[in-house]
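Worked example

This section walks through a single chain of length 239. The input is the sequence exactly as stored; nothing has been trimmed or padded.
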Amino acid sequence: MDTDRIEIQTPEGVNLEMTLAGLGSRAAAAIIDTLIIAFFVAIVLIAFADSGGSLVINIMRIALPTVLFFGYHLAFETMGRRQSPGKRALRLRVVRTDGSEPGNVASLIRNLIRIVDFLPALYLLGIVAVFSTTQNQRLGDLAAGVVVVMEPRPSDDFAVSWPSFAELPEGWDVSAVTDDDVAMMRQFLSRRERLDNESRRQIGFRIAKTVEAKISRPPMQMTSEQTIETVLKLKEMRG
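Given that input, the structure is written out below as C-alpha cells.
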C-alpha cells in the first residue's frame, strides 16, 4: 500500500524511500519493551514489599513504576542509537518527517503524550490514530512531528561492494557518521546509475563533503564517490 511508504527529499537532493512501521511491528516492539519494564517494576515492588504502609512508601510504590515506564522510553530515545530494545529487535527507528534524527525536545513531547495514546487502556487511542493517519502515526508522533520507520537490511535493495579502488585505506575514523548519513549514502549509490552525469557529480560532491566534515583520515586524493563508498563500507564493517 502507498500509505506504508514515505519518500523524503534530503537537503543533498537525494530521495529517501522509507518503509513505515505498521501496527503489528510496533505492537511487537511495545510488547518487548513492556516485558522489560515489567521486570524492573517487579524489582521495585519487591524492594518496597516489606517497607510498611506509610503514605510516603505508598506514593513511592505508585510513582516509581510510572517514572520507570516513561523514563525507560525517554532515555532510550535520547541516548546512543535512540532505539529502545524493542525497536532495535524489530529494526524500527523514530525519525522526523523530513528524515532527520529527532531532537530531545521532540522525544520528550512524543513520550509525554504517550499517556494520552494509552487511554482508555492498552494504547487504544494510539491504535486508532495509527489506523487513521496516512503515515501510521500515534498522537505522540503527530505532536512531535515524527514517524516510525523500518530500518532496511543491508541486502534489501543495495549490497555495498568493495570500493572501486584496490583496497580500503587505513587510519579512517568514521564513528561520527550517523545512521541518517548512512541511509543517504546508500540511497545515492543505489540510484547513481540512473542520474545524469551532472546531477550525479553534484549530488555525489555534496554528500561527500557532508560526510568528510564528520570523519578523520590521512591526506589522500580520491573522488567523491570513492569517499562515499569507503565511508559506507567502513561503517558496515565497524557498525
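What to look for: Residues 155-160 have pLDDT under 50 and may be disordered.
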